[in-house]
Amino acid sequence: MFFRPFALRSLCAVVTALAFVGGLGHMAPAYAASGSTSKVKKAAVKKPVASVKKAPARKVAQAKPVRRVKATVAGGKTRVTQARHSVVRVSVPPSVSVGQRLGLHDSNDPLDLSSSVALVVDQESNQVLFSKNDSAVLPIASLTKLMTGLVVVDAGLDMSEPITITADDIDTVKGSRSRLAVGTTLTRGELMHLSLMSSENRAAHALGRTFPGGLREFVRRMNGKADELGMHDTRYVEPTGLSSDNRSSARDLATLVSAASERPVLRDLSTSPGYEVDVGRRTLQFNNSNRLIKNPEWEIGLQKTGYISEAGRCLVMQARVAGRDLIMVFLDASGKLGRLQDAERVRRWVEKQADLLSDGRARPQG
Fold first, then answer.
1. Entry pTM
2. Distance, CA of 320 to CA of 258 (rounded, Å)
3. 132 is a catalytic site residue
4. Of 131, 166, 191, 298, which has the fewest Cβ atoms less than 10 A away?
5. Which class for 173: exposed (0-12), middle (13-18), buried (19 or more C-beta within 10 A)?
6. How many CA atoms lie within 13 A of 322 on its CB side?
7. Catalytic site residue 304?
8. Which of 259, 254, 248 has the alpha carbon at shortest distance from 332?
């Protein structure tokens, strides 16, 4: 029994010593953190690391790069648009005119004109000086407005009557723009001026819309006037020329130009270099669509230009060249300057051939 208490006390002492050492081991990091200078050797204690469950990464929507897309649309024009997707290349062949589809551009002529149809006539004698596919019936674009003006003038309507542009005058055929906003009010005479000089589509449509009896009656009058003048290749469906269903031949158009040139108001308005109109608080400047009007080498009595993709570039004129009143018709010319360059070539040719032409011995054929 003597050894039992001693053994028990020894065992307790050992346990106490172990507990003390263990406590020092746990306290060592605390001493180190507090900056204690006690020379206690740190025990390398690995703290259990709690497994932290990461939140799923948020997907950030990255803006796709803006791509510029070039698309060739009707008429050979190139539009640049923006797309936020992969690059898209749109290749659309340029719109082909009716004359090109008919192969009229394959015809050769001595003057190497870009127009597929051309006709030059002496207005006084009706002598044909130059012809190229002059019987072909093609869309005539805004040359239509010459008949629009002729019908309005011959109807004897009040040119001072105010007319307001409405939504009905907006182009829904080609989507062309206009500087005459809906609600703009001008006189009939001003609308005539802008229609013939600047080829203003809303102005021309408003002239037909406000005609006594309405637009349908106006178109009927247009076709009636064509029949009256003997223009049997000609047909009109509306007063602007935006529709490719407005068609005629060079021969018929020469007849129209001759008749229109006898109306002083049509001569004056179509050859006006420019005109200003007051629109509310603004003043708009309109210019002639035919740059030859400002060319001092030309003496133009009446003119009209026209363009839609189906018709190509068109031009009709009554001009005095080499002492003669000539009627010139150019249809379906290539390029923006083609019709003007053709007119210049014809003028120079007529001037050089003045003596031969007076004898009626020169008539190049296409």
1. 0.74
2. 13
3. no
4. 166
5. middle
6. 16
7. no
8. 248
Model confidence at 364: pLDDT above 70? no
Task: From the candidates 116, 131, 142, 289, give the one annotated as an active-site residue.
Answer: 142
Instruction: Give pLDDT, residue 280.
Output: 83
Distance CA 119, CA 134 (A): 6
199 is catalytic: yes
User: Which residues on neighbouring strands pair with residue 156, listed in sequence order?
Assistant: none
Alpha helices in the chain, H assignment, sequence order? 3-34, 98-101, 144-154, 188-197, 201-209, 214-228, 250-260, 264-270, 338-352, 354-358
Among the options 97, 114, 145, 249, which is catalytic? 145
Give the span between the Cα atoms of 169 and 278, in whole angstroms: 19
Residue (of 256, 159, 144) closest to 196 by Cα position: 144
Q: Which two tokens stand for residue 133?
A: 């596919």
% of the chain with per-residue pLDDT over 90: 69
Q: Which domains, from first to last, does the chain contain? A: 64-95 (no CATH), 98-358 (3.40.710.10)
Q: Is 187 left (phi over 0), alpha (psi -120 to 50) or beta?
A: beta
Burial of 120 (0-12, 13-18, 19+ CB in 10 A): buried
Helix (H, G, I), strand (E, B) or coil at 325: strand
**pLDDT single digits (tens) 166-175:** 999 999 999 9
- Please choose, from the candidates 207, 202, 205, 168, the residue with its C-alpha nearest in 3D space to the C-alpha of residue 187: 207
Q: Is 13 left (phi over 0), alpha (psi -120 to 50) or beta?
A: alpha
Which entry of 199, 243, 249, 270 is annotated as an active-site residue? 199
**pLDDT tens column, 308-357:** 999 999 999 999 999 999 999 999 999 999 999 999 999 999 999 886 65
